[in-house]
Amino acid sequence: MPTTLKDVALRAGVSIKTVSNVIHGQVYVTDEKRERVEEALKELNYQPNLSARYLRKGRVGVIGLAIPELLNPYFAEVSNTVILAAGRQAYTVLVDTTGGERANERIVINGWRPQLLDGVILSPLALEQEDLQPGLVETPVVLLGERFLDVPHDHVAIDNVAAAYEATYHLLRLGYRRIAAIGLRIDVPDETETSKLRLRGYLQALQEVGISSDKQLITTTEAFYDRESGYSAIRRLFADGVVVDAIFCFNDLMALGAIRALYDMGLRVPEDVAVIGFDDIEEGRYAFPSLTTISPDKKLIGETAVDFLLGRIEGTRDVPPERVYIPFRLIERESTMGRAWGGERRDVLKDHA
Amino acid sequence: MPTTLKDVALRAGVSIKTVSNVIHGQVYVTDEKRERVEEALKELNYQPNLSARYLRKGRVGVIGLAIPELLNPYFAEVSNTVILAAGRQAYTVLVDTTGGERANERIVINGWRPQLLDGVILSPLALEQEDLQPGLVETPVVLLGERFLDVPHDHVAIDNVAAAYEATYHLLRLGYRRIAAIGLRIDVPDETETSKLRLRGYLQALQEVGISSDKQLITTTEAFYDRESGYSAIRRLFADGVVVDAIFCFNDLMALGAIRALYDMGLRVPEDVAVIGFDDIEEGRYAFPSLTTISPDKKLIGETAVDFLLGRIEGTRDVPPERVYIPFRLIERESTMGRAWGGERRDVLKDHA
């Protein structure tokens, strides 16, 4: 028979409610009663839940992770690295989904359930500068992602302009010159929003090799970069008669949808059209063809965010808020391997050699 | 300027702490002060967080969803249906991951953080009958998944034996007779554990058409059914020289890993080997070839679990705990479409026609 709260209450000579209050630490209990309860808990070898461990520290041992959605494997993979990193320091992570909605993100950044969570890691999609209400609640917050929000929180990002430049330049280097860019969002005007940074990198690479950009090659999508977005963007592009020899999708899910759309139109990847993604989700490694992509160091993203947040929670980190950039690398796989370095279109690089 | 707690405190003539206590509802505040604070909140159009709405009802408006892991899209998709269903009733869902570990699942089912969550939906992988400690904490719990645990909680399941029978029978009907089964777990002895139910359905279908089972065709895997499990199971099977013309994987992720392994060995799907999965994750619809699978009604799973849980939380559901079976259907896609109905191997069905 496991020890119950009642056993503990009888031993300590207090009410069950008091035992519960001591264990859960949300309500004031006198020191004297608290000591009696804690002694009884120990004598009876009661298995406390996680909260109890954090009683004395005034912490619940739980951090929140607010992501736009669970269906995008990129967020699931980053969440997993956060859960593992937090777990190593005995913190539990509860995942909240914002739906990428500004109102929900605003709630998180302005102090979401401070009595339930010691701190929050937030990956915003729609948040704007003015959404920050300074000083309302003091819950520590760490931001993930690429927006250039000027907020008083630590921020773990990757350099989207540089990453998109590298993806596009890789295609140019292989000889492609009609490169479509899939994923520009027009619902958020902010010029530091992720898709605009990625477009900037794409345009810089074109410019570098002297190709002028063609508006027809740039397609817009909704906030959620899912397989269907990529699929339908490609169908629209081809229905409009746009000539394309390579496609840079702003994430892997759209790239996988794009590849399926190309197959359904009788086109081969990479023989007819090369495709490159962004995120390096596991699915792209097993897909056929496997997907060339930009791989942010997700493990380091999760570990850094957790280190920063726990440092703020436990008071060991007292430097001013920082923005750090996590490295990424390009991983070449089958979806762009149809052409050898250079080939017939090497000429686009001639000024660059 | 947004309204701050300080504004509210000044207007109500109380301390900021008291305002916070009213909003967060965890600490007792006198009725008189509470009314003054609530009036001030209203006058100043303060945007309360969700907790406030549930103050009077003694609920926090948050339910927990404990799943084994985020990396398996099946759990992510079911979680999404839970989040949508709960959201329609103004409940927030926080997702906790158990890692499929019995100790973590035991904590959840025995009442996990009752002061933080109004109830919990748990999808267990390793829980055993004796893990239930009756009556320790009264948090409502709904179980998801297929285990036949005899516990005093509502339970939303699918009929795994019937579903696996249907998957296997589909392959038999198409003329395949060397059908591998991928995914038997040997780490949990319990005969009602999911993989053993699926194996039972597989064996029943073989028996029905008079094919004796071949132990060589049944491969074991770890608890997590990921792409790598499917990939390596197929490599092992072929390394052992086992002759196979079709593969039934106990989930889609393993099936997608299996397809990639077959390609890497120079085999075509479905021309050389047919593959069928289980779960109907979105990835299988866009994969090449697209994946034939068993599709449980995930939307109904999420909605039913939420209905049951909120019914218990709000006291509107007072029938004894029930187990309900959610329907599933077989969805035929490219990965099994290589052969016409019957064909040369129709003979396996002759006793059954």
Automatic annotation (TrEMBL), chains A, B:
PANTHER family assigned to the protein according to its UniProt record, in alphabetical order: LACI-RELATED TRANSCRIPTIONAL REPRESSOR, LACTOSE OPERON REPRESSOR
Keywords (A to Z) from UniProt: DNA-binding, Transcription, Transcription regulation
Record's protein name: Transcriptional regulator, LacI family
Lineage: Bacteria, Bacillati, Chloroflexota, Ktedonobacteria, Ktedonobacterales
All copies of domain HTH lacI-type, residue ranges: 3-57
Superkingdom, natural source: Bacteria
InterPro entries, per database record: HTH_LacI (IPR000843), LacI/GalR-like_sensor (IPR046335), Lambda_DNA-bd_dom_sf (IPR010982), Peripla_BP_I (IPR028082)
GO molecular function, one term: DNA-binding transcription factor activity
Claim: DNA-binding is one of the keywords in the record: yes
Keyword Cytoplasm on entry: no
Matches recorded under PROSITE patterns: HTH_LACI_1, HTH_LACI_2
Pfam family, one: LacI
